[in-house]
């Protein structure tokens, strides 16, 4: 099955982001990506938007709500946020928006760095299956997938989307 | 002996067996308790240090906390006095958002005659998740780990002369941050090796991480009988032992643990085994000076060295929090898997 071309989606996202930032009067956002896929997308988006401020990176492993079920992720990369977030406009970027739990964790972590003036969510792919009241303002592609299907971003070079079928046995686990 | 004797002075536990891994690791090799460094592999030690590295970066945040262990209760069970270790364990737990209970047994039930096992069962009944144990008897943490309810983790915060694994890990973390690769390093551990659980854990950790050369420097009266089996080079002369080393770890002269006269006098000890500015020049020019604390200034280390440019003694304390956060989150994660 074919998947959308990532560079084309990025161009479209950049266009939406420019419009969004302009209508909301945001001159200098901080672009923050969520490890790993979100960081790749955030970097491309930052380039396309000509944002000069350094890229922020979030690893939300310490904020996950499933730690008590799945335990510690062995490789947690340090979160890097360029500066104090008080009063800043954050453009939060992830690859796939699914349940919304990753974004909830990312918001919790962001607020431990300060009180941003606003947080706008941009995602490469928005799919069905939301479990929390979270929505993206900037979306590359909408996809309807079954419970047994996932969409994964492979990268960093070249970036491409891949549809993965999950073994129903794994879903039970 | 019966188990109820442990809380009483004079009772001796058998030395822990050589293979505690069955106890401290899960079936799939994850850390469930942290009792001793001995027997752990290089991958696991590296994973602990890497995890600690992620926590070390947290200090930049406005809120120096993560919600990882929210709702967990951690009990500091200290049968022996400690300030630094207990407070860094407490801070580590709090930065992981756990609730912490400090139980000082010396002033509590032990003096009323309650056995260790009774104390344990009572605290367990309060639905706690982790015990951090310090005890003057070797093997106490193993004993508790064998008897706690499933789902509770035990961290050894120092047992007798046996082990102090998180101290050794924070020392490894400090060395790695400054020096990187262990295989090229010469490390000298100087002082009271005989009474030091820290030294034993350090030697195991340094060897597991494949350190180039591990030296112990001490008078014969402060070396354990089995020192030959520890995989170290033994020096009885400090000047020779310090030659070209990259890291010097000074140990505290444990006056309270000396039952017999191991030394003529503290003054003579300082003359022979005290780390002075002059002696430091024998080591590599970028040598690190470490000490697990509390340092006896003028007994094992000159003040000018302890506070000098080579000293990373206070960094060790800071890193102790990150390393303990790493171990706590890993053992709590392993239970769930």
TrEMBL record, chain A:
Cross-referenced Gene3D superfamilies: 3.40.50.2020
GO MF annotation list: glycosyltransferase activity
UniProt cross-references to InterPro entries, sorted A to Z: PRTase-like, PRTase_dom, PyrR_bifunctional
Signal sequence, start to end: none
Pfam families: Pribosyltran
Keywords: Glycosyltransferase, Transferase
Protein name: Uracil phosphoribosyltransferase
Automatic annotation (TrEMBL), chain B:
SUPFAM superfamilies xref list: Aspartate/ornithine carbamoyltransferase
BP-aspect Gene Ontology terms: 'de novo' pyrimidine nucleobase biosynthetic process; 'de novo' UMP biosynthetic process; amino acid metabolic process
Pathway(s) this gene product operates in, as recorded in its UniProt entry: Pyrimidine metabolism; UMP biosynthesis via de novo pathway; (S)-dihydroorotate from bicarbonate: step 2/3
Pfam families: OTCace (PF00185), OTCace_N (PF02729)
Reaction(s) catalysed (UniProt annotation): carbamoyl phosphate + L-aspartate = N-carbamoyl-L-aspartate + phosphate + H(+)
EC number(s) given by UniProt: 2.1.3.2
Cited function: Catalyzes the condensation of carbamoyl phosphate and aspartate to form carbamoyl aspartate and inorganic phosphate, the committed step in the de novo pyrimidine nucleotide biosynthesis pathway.
Family: Belongs to the aspartate/ornithine carbamoyltransferase superfamily. ATCase family.
Alphabetical list of HAMAP family matching this protein: Asp_carb_tr
The protein, known as: Aspartate carbamoyltransferase
